[in-house]
């Protein structure tokens, strides 16, 4: 019996170490990706051409968003699930367009800060050509994406930030979207 208990203890410890290793791997990968994206952004600014953060990346940074708290987020050129795992993505507009710059991000990671924003708060966006655009939040609303399709205004002086809602939902997805509108 003692032998069986020892084997169960060893197996339990091995499983626990395996889980800890897996969690460390994911955290390390996320940390490294943010540094590689930041380097790709700086290289984009220096060379004037988009740079992929790693050779097999299917996206690249197209802007840098600074929150009212001073946190920097690198905006990626895609809203695919793979890209959104590493940062907010450009959905439409901006960057040589007459549409509002529209960014999407996950509510429980990069865009969790949207919940704390207030009307009048300032956001700054740096574009790939180095120009800075300052925006002030003018509206925040919850919409149902099944009943009201997203309308991207033809106004290059607007910034839209979109994430899923509610922020504390247990399951991801759902039709509700939290939309923050800001004007330059």
List keywords for this structure.
single chain; 184 residues; alpha+beta; eight-stranded mixed β-sheet; 8 strands; globular
- If classified by CATH, what would the architecture be? Beta Barrel
The count of domains is 1
Percent of residues in helical segments? 25-40%
CATH homologous superfamily assignment: Sortase
Q: Kindly provide the name of the CATH class.
A: Mainly Beta
Percent of residues in beta strands? 25-35%
Class by SSE composition: alpha+beta
What sort of overall outline do the alpha carbons produce when their principal axes are compared?
Answer: globular
Kindly report the spatial arrangement of strands forming the biggest sheet.
2-1-5-6-8-7-4-3
Tally of DSSP β-strands = 8
* First-last Cα distance: 73 Å
What is the arithmetic mean of pLDDT?
Answer: 89
What's the alpha carbon Rg, rounded to whole Å?
Answer: 20 Å
How many helices does DSSP assign? Answer: 2
The CATH topology annotation reads as Sortase, Chain: A
Largest sheet: 8 strands, mixed
Question: Which parts are unreliable, with pLDDT below 50 for 5 consecutive residues or more?
Answer: none
Q: Topology as H/E string?
A: HEEHEEEEEE
